[in-house]
UniProtKB/TrEMBL annotation:
Signal peptide start-end: 1-19
Species annotation: Deinococcus soli (ex Cha et al. 2016)
Matching Pfam families: SBP_bac_5
Every Solute-binding protein family domain range: 75-493
Keywords carried by this UniProt record: Signal
GO cellular component terms listed in the entry, alphabetical order: ATP-binding cassette (ABC) transporter complex; periplasmic space
Record keyword Signal present: yes
Alphabetized GO MF terms: peptide transmembrane transporter activity
GO BP term (any one): peptide transport
Protein name per the record: Peptide/nickel transport system substrate-binding protein
Length: 580
């Protein structure tokens, strides 16, 4: 198996070398951009895109009504819309769409495409998508019609509709974050005529119930995408995706790089080798590799100290699915754990106190960054810097484990399997650090670390089976609620997946979402942070400044153009890059 893997990487490197050679021969507009990463691509359908690996491709193939203005994450500007008006005291938005825009198929963009896009997102609204926050704005609930029977076709069709050539949104309540929600690439406008022709939802009332909650990750639009973006799909297989500049792109800033290849290369060493040879322009590597193997090398440029707008932590599933293979014997007998092992807050507290944040910062982040007390970026409003973060304390961890399960945890011991994304060195290092510290407390404690594919870890079907995984969040829109509800609300994104319910926190979140009083919101978020810390719902990873390497032949990358809300590879869209 090892030889087979190495052969695949060798073939991939050869392919990329040939691409680089062709690029050098062609030059200019025929240049090729090569990106290498360890994660696979879940989907190319914006209606279910909800991970950064897929998003970095989809955001270059599709476009939204509005987008962020330069590097400013708080201001939006027109993209496929040219203007909009608010009405009914902030509960109605009317968008005028841009003329002369074509999809990759050659079809013209019309209001019907935008109407179809948003209705499709509200109808499907699967657990693998970000349509829950669109549904909250337009229907007053994060659920789809299967989970909330109050949702009807009449509600959906009146929430988003075309009035002639004008797209009209009608909201049940004021939502100050609505415009920034529309900038999320999951709301990218799809080619409705093309979608219907290839077997996607036909957009009618007669069939909408058949598509409620339907899994569209691997659907026809994933296989045959058609957007208005600057790049269109050429080919896709298990290890690579290739795209080319769309000749019919409407924008004034035509793409200068002709071809883009995104390659899945699991082995970090192979990515580094390709990058140093000039066969890859961007690669996924941790900070330690950048400083020890890349910084200062010929042809290498590094963009560092970037604003961090992500939050990450290890989640602890309070109801692990039986038979998942992650709980061993399924009993607290030293050979496994019961499915509700993490239901006991003292188990969670023991794990939290066993994670050595200072050592992680020193070893992985090279001393940069600081401990966090909440799964909210400290660069966002609502973060209470006066609240002390959880600390690494073996004695505190020991005491918590001795109390857990009425003393059975300490007396009997446990064996548990935890997962990380294969190829993600920083996640693996964090888990190894946690494993070492926990097993040092009691010889009866055993933590096994398992590397898994990204698509397997993130799938809603597989999440209940995991005992512990890294949960990270890049913001969908620039408001603290996007993090707080996501991680801590019992109706949010992560809390239901780890079976965490806290009525007190739910009440505070509801109040914070219903007021425009900034001071009161900050007060509520501080209360949520303190309670969540006391209950140890997550092992919170420290903040760290963003950093990434790129070949110095790439132009258009800078701190001034970097926007952390978009373009996960370079901080700016591919169309804004050029290559010498």
């Amino acid at each position: 198996m090892k030889n087979k893997t190495l052969s695949a990487v060798a073939l991939a490197t050869l392919t990329l070398t040939l691409a680089a050679c062709n690029n050098k021969q062609a030059g200019g507009a025929d240049s090729t951009l090569v990106i290498q990463q360890s994660a696979d691509i879940l989907t190319l359908d914006p209606g279910t895109t909800y991970d950064t690996s897929s998003g970095q491709i989809v955001e270059n193939m599709y476009e939204t009504l509005v987008g962020y203005k330069g590097s400013d994450i708080t201001k939006v500007e027109p993209v496929l819309a040219t203007e909009w008006q608010e009405g009914q005291d902030g509960k109605e938005y009317r968008f005028t769409l841009r003329d002369g825009v074509k999809f990759h198929t050659g079809n013209d963009l019309t209001c019907a495409d935008a109407e179809y896009t948003f209705r499709r997102n509200l109808v499907t609204n699967t657990a693998d998508s970000g349509n829950w926050f669109l549904s909250e704005s337009l229907l007053g609930t994060a659920s789809n019609a299967k989970d909330d029977t109050s949702i009807t076709w009449a509600k959906i069709s009146s929430a988003v509709r075309c009035d002639g050539d004008t797209l009209v949104f009608t909201l049940p309540a004021v939502d100050p974050a609505f415009l920034t929600k529309l900038a999320y690439i999951g709301q990218g406008i799809v080619d409705s005529k093309h979608a219907k022709e290839i077997g996607e939802w036909d957009g009618t009332e007669a069939t909408w119930n058949d598509w409620v909650g339907k899994d569209i990750l691997g659907g026809e639009l994933n296989k045959q995408p058609s957007g208005t973006g600057a790049y269109k799909l050429v080919n896709r297989d298990a290890n690579a995706i290739s795209l080319t500049a769309f000749d019919g792109y409407w924008g004034d800033d035509k793409p200068q790089i002709k071809n883009v290849i995104l390659q899945k290369v699991p082995e970090e060493a192979a990515r580094v080798q390709a990058f140093l040879k000039g066969d890859a322009d961007f690669i996924e590597v941790p900070r330690a590799i950048i400083s020890t193997q890349l910084q200062g090398k010929p042809g290498v440029a590094v963009l560092d100290d970037l604003t961090n707008t992500t939050a990450a932590g290890f989640s602890m599933n309070q109801k692990i699915e039986a038979g998942s293979g992650m709980i061993g014997s399924g009993k607290l007998d030293g050979k496994g754990v019961p499915t509700d092992f993490f239901k006991d807050a003292d188990v969670r507290r023991g794990f939290v106190a066993s994670f050595d944040v200072p050592t992680y910062i020193e070893q992985v982040q090279e001393g940069k960054g600081a401990a966090r007390n909440f799964l909210l970026p400290d660069s966002f409003p609502g973060y209470d810097s006066n609240l002390e973060a959880a600390t690494f304390d073996p004695e505190l961890a020991k005491a918590a484990f001795q109390r857990a399960w009425g003393g059975q945890v300490w007396q009997n011991g446990f064996t548990i399997n935890v997962s990380y994304r294969a190829g993600a060195q920083t996640q693996q290092t964090a888990m190894e650090l946690l494993k070492k510290n926990i097993e040092a407390l009691n010889p009866k404690f055993k933590v096994n670390i398992v590397g898994k594919e990204w698509s397997e870890l993130i799938s809603s079907k597989n999440v209940p089976k995991e005992a512990m995984v890294m949960t990270a969040w890049a913001p969908d829109y620039a408001d603290p609620d996007n993090f707080v509800s996501t991680f801590y609300s019992s109706t949010g994104y992560y809390a239901p997946r780890i079976n965490a319910q806290d009525a007190q926190i739910d009440g505070w979140i509801k109040e914070a979402r219903g007021t425009t009083d900034t001071a009161r919101r900050d007060e509520l978020y501080a209360q949520i942070a303190k309670r969540a810390l006391d209950e140890a719902y997550y092992i919170i990873m420290p903040a760290q400044p963003g950093v990434f390497p790129y070949r110095d032949t790439i132009k258009g990358v800078s701190a001034d153009t970097f926007n952390p809300m978009i373009a996960f590879t370079s901080g700016t869209y591919w169309k804004n890059l050029s290559k010498e």
